[in-house]
Amino acid sequence: MGEAGATRGRPRSFDRDAALAAAVRLFWERGYGATSIGELTEAMGIRPASLYAAFGDKRSLFEESVAAYGRTPAGTFMGAALEEEPTAYRAFARILREAARIYADPSHPAGCMTITAAANVAPQDAEVGARLKGLRNANLVAWESRLRAAQRTGELPERVNPRALAGYFATIIQGMSQRSCDGAGPDELAEIAELALAAWPGDREG
């Protein structure tokens, strides 16, 4: 009797991690603005009241979804390449080649969530767009820092502008993400990656 009394009135329990994973997929596939609360609760298998109780409002759920995406292989491969590869060329070659595979992987939505989720953000949700822009710009800063370090060690010549080169690769990555959303497969993306790497202005390894 005591146990029944303790649970009376509580919403039906659910697997929070599974529900969050479903939200990640939906935001990744449709973007923030095009995803409604009704679509989220249907995909997550919960009622609106449970969503609000467990995650807060839609924006809070999105913030948690972005953080969860950042812990997946699709969200960590760039940082791992920068940390693990001994040269800048090998780091950027790995980033582009892995992006070609990951962005076109049919086991999850195409492209990069921090790029695709920013589409169709309404003016009243400007903070969401700014959050995603901040994440993309943080990558750019990390890339520029790695390229400046490569310049100091002589891997890149002095004539190279590290900021412009970082921007170049960011543009390629964003374009690869969009191409995958438009149906490009891993082979096409891999060819694009190799063409981009052909523009590398310094020493190459691997």
Automatic annotation (TrEMBL):
Gene3D superfamilies: Homeodomain-like, Tetracycline Repressor, domain 2. Pfam families: TetR_C_13 (PF16925), TetR_N (PF00440). Residues 13-73 form the HTH tetR-type domain. Residues 36-55 bind DNA. Keywords: DNA-binding, Transcription, Transcription regulation. Coiled coil: none annotated. InterPro entries: Homeodomain-like_sf (IPR009057), HTH_TetR (IPR001647), Tet_transcr_reg_TetR-rel_C_sf (IPR036271), TetR_C (IPR011075). The keyword Cell cycle does not apply. This is TetR/AcrR family transcriptional regulator. The lineage of its organism: Bacteria, Bacillati, Actinomycetota, Actinomycetes, Kitasatosporales.
